[in-house]
Amino acid sequence: MNTPVRVLVVDDDPLVRAGLVMILSAAPDLVLVGEAADGTEVVAAVDACAPDVVLMDIRMPRLDGLAATELLRARSDPPEVIVLTTFHADEYVLRALRAGASGFLLKDTRPTEILHAITRVAAGDPILSPAVTRRLIAHVGARARTHGGATPLRSWPGSANGNARSRWRWPRESRTRRSATSCS
């Protein structure tokens, strides 16, 4: 039997958190290990709950989800982060990817797709919602046309020195499950 994927939900809207809790409770291969209402609570929640995946809102009152994602991804053995938001502006997508998010989903994503995304990200696969993928492809295509053909690697989002690998964390061969702790 596979160990369930441990999920932490971070959103300042109690109604959104309650909806995600309902969705997660219906999935036998996922377990909700905790909730946080602001980015300032994320590090402590991750330390206490040891999630495999964090579902992170972008806009929160004290510390936004992008800054919280940067904090998490800078740690050793960080959880994967899926940004789940209503905002799909290019700057949010690019900032989330630069911060180290493994996924970017819009809040209008169907519940079954959210559950699928969590399991895929936990397995090391990146996930972008279809609307975000279309915008990213258009962005890269526009850059390529501006540069007269292929976009130089050094100009790709997240590639400060021309080496995209330096900004991305590659999936691990096997994900070590953390010991189960009660966080609820």
Describe this structure in words.
The structure is a single chain. Residues 159-182 have low confidence and may be disordered. Helices cover 37% and strands 16% of the residues. A six-stranded parallel beta sheet has the order 2-1-3-4-5-6, with helices on both faces. The chain has six helices and six strands. The longest helix has 17 residues, at 130-146. With 184 residues, the protein is an alpha/beta fold.
- Our Rg estimate from Cα atoms comes to 16 Å
Q: Main beta sheet, described?
A: 6 strands, parallel
DSSP E strands, number: 6
Low-confidence stretches: 159-182
Mean pLDDT over the residues: 81
The best one-word shape is: globular
Helical percentage: 25-40%
Structural class: alpha/beta
Total of helices? 6
How much of the sequence lies in strands comes to 15-25%
Order of helices and strands: EHEHEHEHEHEH
Distance between the termini: 23 Å
Main β-sheet, spatial strand arrangement:
2-1-3-4-5-6
Helix and strand topology:
Elements lengths: L4 E6 L3 H12 L4 E7 L5 H8 L3 E4 L8 H9 L6 E6 L4 H10 L3 E4 L4 H12 L4 E2 L1 H17 L38
Parallel strand pairs: 1-2, 1-3, 3-4, 4-5, 5-6
Helix pairs in contact: 3-4
How do you describe this structure in short?
The protein contains six helices and six strands; from the N terminus they run βαβαβαβαβαβα.
